[in-house]
Amino acid sequence: MSPAKLEAVTSIVSRLSDDLQYGTLQPEKRDTLLEELKIYGRDPSFADPIFTKDGIKTLSRHAFDSSSDTTAQNALRVLCNALLLKPETRQSFVSTGYALKACRRLQNNNPDDEFLVSRLLLLSTYGTNIDMPKLVEAEQLANTLANNLARHAERLSSESTSKANANPMLDMALVETLKLFFNATQYAPDNISSFEPAIPHITTILCSLSLPSQQTKTPLDPPFGLLINALMNLKFSSSTAKDAVYPPSSPFSVADRLIQLLVLSMKAYSSADLEQIVSPLVCVLSAVHEDAPAPVRKSIRDALLPTESDREDVLGKTDTLPSRLLRNWTNPEAPELGKAISHLYFDMSDKDPSTFVKNVGYGYASGFLFQKGINIDPHTIKNSEEAEGSDGVREIRRPVNPITGQFLDTEKPVEMPEMTDEEKEREAERLFVLFERLKKTGIIDVQNPVEQAMREGQFEELSDDE
């Protein structure tokens, strides 16, 4: 079968190539050959002619120069499969120059074309020298993607949409469009403003879809995770963006939807999955908070800052959303998520170190502040009614341990056996050595408490027999 397969593939690619030059094939026969080639191409073994530069060019010409939609789509299916299975073919396609025509075909308002061409362009962004800014500027790719998303937003927000009669290709096309949208914003960062018209459509889709169930194990499966990614690189500071993210008729809708997804995600995903899947959600929520009007900022803080019930114990010990976020602050399996969470909480504290420590405790805040080069002594921060009425901190009416964030009146005394004299002496020696090492690093300038105690006569010299 293998030599026979190679012979068949070679013959089909040759006939398709000759057809481009001489017009030797009838439309039905051409489409039949492309269908056969698609089947052969599912397994790249003994199908080499498909994956050569000439093979990719032949398929590209049938995909974008044919007057028949059927022929074009059949060729596109073979092309997409080739670029998926053989990464080296991606540069071969980009080198043909047909990415420009692909952008034009993406304007057809046809779900099959949208699905196939979006996937083709998406695959072409990996490991190639594709000029994404040129596609955005010369072929208006950003506008095309926005228009395609607009149609999906209109469809999904319509109350008359019937799931029973829905075309599954429409949902598949939406998924590929969102993937391409994210990659386009990644590879054309200087053209990011060109993608702004898509924001209203992305937020409409985000808020129109039914939330995943409480029992789902993957709440950010497509399209939710892809909608979040599509917002990742965008700015929300312009009036157009603000009207979309904080619409006057329902200014809390987008922020509330993001928080709902965050609640589901923090419960559903394991530590290994949080890093890649949930980090973008936290980043987008941070961006939404940054440009939000005051009432929306307050609603986000009310949902994410530790509550009084959280402070009945050391922060991060309860099962609430704020506690789950704090526990992942230093999750070694999700360092980027930890960074995103710490930046979000610093922003919710109005970027004020004192407020930041009040909100999360010095234990969580210290590492972030050290990386930022901000020095602050937690014991200099008043810890009770002083926070009342502050915009950046939840109102606290009871004294709080500035290190742990726990209410002082709920702390339990630590029961430890009395140390022997030898243990006390060894502990004093360890402390002395530790502080001497810290002083030599230059990181801190602190009085060694053991040395100070010796000078103040708090140490007693014992005889050898004592």
UniProtKB/TrEMBL annotation:
InterPro entries in alphabetical order: ARM-type_fold, Chaperone_Ric-8_A/B, Gua_nucleotide_exch_fac_Ric8
Presence of keyword ATP-binding: no
GO CC field: cell cortex
Annotated compartments: Cytoplasm, Cell cortex
UniProtKB keywords: Chaperone, Cytoplasm, Guanine-nucleotide releasing factor
A GO molecular-function annotation: guanyl-nucleotide exchange factor activity
Pfam families assigned: Ric8 (PF10165)
GO biological process: G protein-coupled receptor signaling pathway
Main location group: cytoplasm
Homology family: Belongs to the synembryn family.
UniProt-recorded name of the protein: Guanine nucleotide exchange factor
Biological source species: Podospora fimiseda
